[in-house]
Amino acid sequence: MSKKRTIDSFFQAPPKKPRTEEIAKETIETTTHAKYPFPIKNLPPSLASEIVSLPARPGSEINDQPDLDLLYFKPYIPPYMAKEFFEFLRSELPFYRVEYDIKRGGISTHIKTPRWTTVFGLDETSRFDQDGIVVDSKTGAKATDASYNKYPPRPIPQCLDDLRKTVESATGCKFNFCLVNYYASGSDSISYHSDDERFLGPNPAIASFSLGSRRDFLMKHKPIPNKEQTDDTPESKPLKLQLASGEMVLMRGSTQSKWLHSIPKRTGKNQDDGGRINITFRRAIIKEGTNNYYNYNVGSGPVYRWNTKTHEMTIWQS
Ligand SMILES: O=C(O)CCC(=O)C(=O)O
Ligand SMILES: [Fe+2]
Fold first, then answer.
1. Which CATH number covers residue 60?
2. Where is the Fe2OG dioxygenase domain (predicted)?
3. pLDDT tens by residue, 136-184
4. What total of structural domains would you count in the chain?
5. Is residue 215 situated within a structural domain?
C-alpha cells in the first residue's frame, strides 16, 4: 500500500500529539465583553489551528433552477472537528427562547420562537473600539443611536470569529453578523421564510453551517405573481438538502429574493436526534439590521446555558 495521503485519511482526526508539559499547561482563554452574560471560551487551540485550513472540500454549485444560486460544501468542516465544535458551542454560548407579538391585519398574535437562538455582531455603520464600545465606523465617535439602546450589540466571540475568517476567505464575501440556532430536537424548527430584509442590501450572501444531527433543509420558489402571463418562465421544483454535520450552504444572488427555505419539524423515531446547531454569517449594512437581529434572536427574556449534567438548557443566573 502506498503511504500517499488519501481523501479518507484527510477526514480522520490527526493522530493525538504527545502530551508534553507545554500542552498540558495550555489554558483556554475567553472573549469578554460588557454585554456578554458571561465570558465566552475561545476555541481549544487544536480546533482553532485546524479551522484555518478549511474548507475540507471545495463547494459545488447548485444553480440548475430559476433564480437559485447555492454553493454547497459537503463538508466544509470534517466530521471529527464538527462534533467537537458542536459540543463546544452548545456548552459555551448564551442562548435565548425568544417570544414576541406580531400584528397581522389588526390582530395581535403571540409568537414563541420554536428553537434556541443567539446573535453577535454589528452593522457596517459602526464598529467596536478597543474597549468594546460601539463607535461610528468612519469617525470613531461614540455611537449614541437609539437603534442600539434597547438591545446592546456585542462582538462576535473569537470561537465564532475564527470560523468567520475562513468562510470569508473561502467565499470572498464579508460578514459582520453571526446568528446561531440550536434545534434541541425534531420539535424545534424554522418555518418557510427568506432572509431578504432591506437591511442586508440587494442579493445578500448568507453562509449557513450545520453541526450535529442531520436535518432536512427545504427550499421552494416564491409564488410568481400573474403566473398565467409568464408561461415561458422555466418551472422550478422544490429542493431538499439533507444537511449533515459540518456542511455549509452559501446562499447568494437572487436566492433570498426568489426562494423560501425552512427546517421542518421531525416526529416519531427521528424526534430525539441529539440536537443540531446552525450558524449563519450575514452582512447588515444599516443600523436597523442590528436592532432587528437582537430583537428576534436575543429579545428581553432570560439567558439560558447548556447544562452538561442534565443535558438541557437551564436559566443562567449571574
Ligand atoms: O437551520 C438552518 O439551516 C436554517 C436557519 C435559517 O434559515 C435562518 O436562521 O434564517
Ligand atoms: Fe433563513
1. 2.60.120.590
2. 174-285
3. 999 999 998 888 989 999 999 999 999 999 999 999 999 999 999 999 9
4. 1
5. yes
Is ligand 1 within 6 A of the CB of residue 256? no
Query: Which ligand has the shortest distance to the CA of 189?
Result: 1
Which atom of ligand 1 is nearest to 215's Cα?
Answer: 3
Calpha distance 2→6 (Å, rounded): 10
User: pTM of the entire structure?
Assistant: 0.92
Characterize the bridge pairing of strands 177-183 and 116-121. Answer: antiparallel
Residue pair 200/257 in contact (Cβ under 8 Å)? The answer is no
Sign of torsion over alpha carbons 77, 80, 83, 87: negative
Indicate if ligand 1 lies below 6 Å from the C-beta of 248. Answer: no
In which domain, by residue range, is 139 found?
Answer: 28-226+235-315
Does the residue 23 lie in any domain? no
CA 167 – CA 169 distance, rounded (Å): 5
Cα–Cα distance for residue pair 72/243, rounded to 1 Å: 10
Q: State ipTM.
A: 0.99
Task: Say which range, 18-22, 178-182, 286-290, 293-297, has the weakest mean pLDDT.
Answer: 18-22
Residue 5 lies in a domain: no
What's the gap in Å between 261 CA and the centre of ligand 2? 6
Residue 314 has pLDDT above 50, yes or no: yes
Say if residue 92 is exposed, middle or buried (CB neighbours under 10 Å; 0-12, 13-18, 19+). buried
The reply to whether ligand 1 has any atom less than 6 angstroms from the CB of 178 is no
100-136 pLDDT tens trace: 999 988 999 999 999 999 999 999 999 999 999 999 9
Q: Is 43 close to ligand 1, i.e. is its CB under 6 Å away?
A: no
Please answer whether residues 134 and 148 qualify as being in contact, where contact means their C-beta atoms are separated by less than 8 angstroms: yes
Q: Is residue 3 part of a domain?
A: no
